Each structure stands twice: as C-alpha cells, then as structure tokens.
C-alpha cells in the first residue's frame, strides 16, 4: 500500500490511516456542504446538521446507546477529562473518592492526579501479572464516598481487555458511576453500555481508521441519569455540555469509520489474529522473549513482548528502517523511563526497557508480518552477538 522505501507500519495503537472510504465520505463536508450544523435558517446548516445526526445515530447504535447520549469531543483525551472532571465537579458533595487502575492511559491518570490537588482521593488499583484487575480488590476499594470507577476497556500497550460487564455489575450494585475509556476497543470488540452497565464511555475515531481530532463521550441519560459539569463553555452546543462549532467533516468520518468497523469487525479480528499468530511464531524462535499481558483476553491486533539481553534503544534503532513501531507507549516513547504499564505488570525494570509493542491493523499483509518477524529476529540476534564479543574484538 505504501511506497517501498517507507517502513512497514505496525503502530496501530498510536493511530491508524484514514480508510479511503472514510475520507470519501468526509470530503464534501469540507467544501460544498460546509455549513454550520447549528445554523437553522438555511440549507447549508440543515445538510450539515443532518450529517452530524446520522453519525450520532451510528455511533450511539454501535454501543447500544441513544443519540442524545453522545457528546462529540476532540478525541478520547478530552472525553476522559470531561468524564472525570465533569463527574467530580457534579458529584463532589456525595464524596471525593475515585477508583482507577495503574495501567490506564495518561489521559485518565493525569486528570485524576489533578483532582488530587483539589482534595480528591484516588485509589489506583494494581493489576495482576496478566494485566487484568482483580474484581475482589475493586469491590474492596469501593467506599461510601466513592463517586466514580474508571477502568479502560482495552489497554493501549498490552491490549488487555478488562471484564467490563462484571465491573459494571459491581458498580451498579454499589451505586457508583462507571466510566470506561474505550479508545482502543470501539469497533474492535463488542461494546454494550446496557449489558455492561457503563455510565460514561470515551471514544475516538483515529484508532479505527477515522480522522484524528474527533471523538465522543457517551453520558447515560436514564437509569441513572448522569449529570456532568461542562468543561468548555460557550455557544451551548452538545446540550450545553461541550460548546464549540461541531467539526462536521470529522464527525462524518467518525461515523463512517464506526459503520465500516462494525461491518468488518468479525472478519477483521479473525484476520488480525492470524497475522499476530504468524508474528509470534516467528519471534518465539528466539530464546529470552516473553509475551506481556494476558495471552488471549486482548485485542487481536496487539502483540507486546519483552526481550532479555538486548538494549531497548539499540533495538529500536536497528528496526527503524524496516518497521514503524513503539517501545512502551507512544506518549512516552521519547523518555527512557520504562512504561508504567509494564512496570505495573511487575516486570523487572530492565526487561521493561527492551520491550516492543506491535500494533497490527487492517492494511497489514502476511508478507509484511513475515518481513518484520524475520527482521526482528535477525536484529536481536546480531545485537546479542555483538554484546557477547570481548571488548577488543569489536575493534578489528
Ligand atoms: C489514544 C488513546 C487515548 C487518547 O485519544 P485521543 O483521541 O488521541 O485524544 C486515550 N486512551 C486510550 C486508551 C488511547 O489508546
């Protein structure tokens, strides 16, 4: 798909390309159909409004919600901030305790950290060595003053899928709101806010072949009716919860990406599993390589491995010409600190350093996976050989 000199893209947890079918759906809304969906007095406004409405219906149906429960945002980061700060501000009189998990995305952890400066108490649940939370620990952590539990659907580094329905059931029984960051999960695994008792859910378009800079927060309207304090005030769009002119082309693309994702979900997940198994079978020939996270309860496109006796930086440099991927999480790829997610799994710091996250996606081919598998094996083998040579023999 890409020209020959570019590395093979295996970083689909960081972002994905916009599917051509999505791009095509978006294009008219940049030009002829450029109206403001809030304009109620002319055709330009009506056609934009109608396109936004259709996308809203598609996205709502994808998670078994109603269209009124979807608040468009600039992405999952904003949706997480809106959910967590919005609930904190609306419910603080009932308590100032929030429960989340050590392996969450920074867009959840950092708003929680910020709330601590305002007097909230946050419990960061640990995870088991496979990356899953312990439901008994969650149960035990809930206090009378707990107002919110925030647990992601699928992890962006290790792909682990948390038991959402069980978490939702516990939260519902205890009368605590349940928020889930589903940025990596939407249109990859089935999500149902009713069956899973989810009260707030963060979504984004650009991890499922939609455009960057658009997402949504689902906010439950009945049983119970959730109120959240707006974090951006202005023109009163999105039922006064999130002001700002709606970005029509992006929203249209988001809707199309979700529609396509749902249509393709079953066959695509099967295809990705096949590619992942191929990759793992090639890598697993190496000694001293280990899988991170639960082996099966995870996203089909995710493979995260830790490699012994190899320097993480040297490994990334060696792979760069052939394959685009991440060590640790994309957000902290530039830092030398081991990923907080791998550390939370109880990985030794050293092992956490030499780790690779493969994010396989819709447009990868089996031939690409074979090339990558062989390259990774050969780069690691030669780095290990160089390391084992006596110092002076390197100078020959
Ligand atoms: C990518 C990602 C985010 C951030 O989403 P943006 O739309 O880029 O703001 C949040 N949480 C998870 C789990 C993610 O993977």
Show the helix and strand layout.
Elements: E1 8-9, H1 20-26, H2 43-62, E2 70-73, H3 76-91, E3 97-101, H4 106-117, E4 121-125, H5 135-141, E5 146-150, H6 164-174, E6 177-181, E7 200-204, E8 215-219, H7 248-283, E9 289-291, E10 302-307, H8 312-319, E11 323-324, H9 340-344, H10 349-353, E12 355-359, H11 366-388
Parallel strand pairs: 1-11, 3-4, 3-5, 5-6, 6-7
Antiparallel strand pairs: 2-8, 7-8, 9-10, 10-12
Bound molecules: pyridoxal-5'-phosphate.
Write up this protein:
- With 396 residues, the chain is of the alpha/beta class.
- It folds into 2 domains: 8-16 and 265-386, Aspartate Aminotransferase, domain 1; 20-259, 3-Layer(aba) Sandwich (Aspartate Aminotransferase, domain 2).
- The protein has 11 helices and 12 strands.
- The strands form 3 sheets. The chain has a 7-stranded mixed beta sheet, sandwiched between helices. A 3-stranded antiparallel beta sheet has the order 9-10-12. Strands 1-11 form a two-stranded parallel ribbon.
- It is globular and about 75 Å long.
- The model is unreliable at 329-333 (pLDDT under 50).
- Bound molecules: pyridoxal-5'-phosphate (PLP).
- Pyridoxal-5'-phosphate binds next to helix 3.
């Amino acid at each position: 798909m890409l020209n020959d000199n570019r590395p093979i893209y295996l970083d689909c947890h960081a972002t994905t390309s916009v599917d051509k079918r999505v791009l095509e759906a978006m294009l008219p809304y940049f030009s002829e159909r450029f109206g403001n969906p809030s304009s109620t007095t002319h055709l330009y406004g009506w056609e934009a409004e109608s396109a936004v409405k259709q996308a809203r219906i598609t996205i709502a149906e994808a998670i078994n919600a109603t269209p009124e429960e979807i608040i468009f945002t600039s992405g999952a980061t904003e949706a997480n901030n809106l959910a967590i700060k919005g609930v904190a501000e609306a419910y603080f009189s009932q308590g100032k305790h929030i429960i989340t998990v050590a392996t969450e995305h920074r867009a959840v952890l950092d708003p929680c950290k910020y709330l601590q400066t305002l007097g909230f108490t946050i419990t960061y649940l640990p995870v088991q060595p496979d990356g899953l939370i312990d439901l008994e620990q969650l149960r035990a952590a809930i206090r009378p003053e707990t107002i919110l539990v925030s647990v992601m659907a699928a992890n962006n580094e290790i792909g682990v899928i948390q038991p959402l329905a069980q978490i939702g059931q516990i939260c519902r029984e205890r009368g605590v709101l349940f928020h889930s960051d589903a940025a990596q999960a939407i249109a990859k695994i089935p999500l149902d806010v009713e069956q899973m008792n989810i009260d707030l859910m963060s979504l984004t378009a650009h991890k499922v072949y939609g455009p960057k800079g658009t997402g949504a927060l689902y906010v439950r309207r009945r049983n119970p009716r959730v109120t959240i304090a707006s974090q951006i005030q202005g023109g009163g769009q999105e039922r006064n919860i999130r002001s700002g002119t709606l970005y029509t082309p992006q929203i249209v693309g988001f809707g199309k990406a979700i529609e396509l994702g749902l249509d393709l979900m079953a066959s695509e997940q099967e295809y990705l599993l096949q590619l992942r198994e191929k990759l793992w079978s090639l890598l697993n020939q190496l000694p001293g390589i280990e899988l991170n996270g639960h082996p099966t309860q995870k996203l089909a496109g995710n493979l995260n491995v830790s490699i012994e006796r190899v320097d993480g930086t040297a490994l990334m440099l060696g792979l760069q010409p052939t394959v685009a991927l991440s060590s640790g999480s994309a957000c902290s790829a530039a830092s030398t600190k081991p990923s907080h997610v791998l550390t939370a799994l109880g990985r030794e710091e050293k092992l956490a350093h030499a780790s690779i996250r493969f994010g396989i996606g819709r447009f990868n081919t089996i031939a690409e996976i074979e090339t990558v598998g062989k390259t990774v094996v050969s780069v690691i083998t030669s780095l290990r050989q160089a390391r084992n040579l006596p110092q002076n023999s390197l100078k020959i």
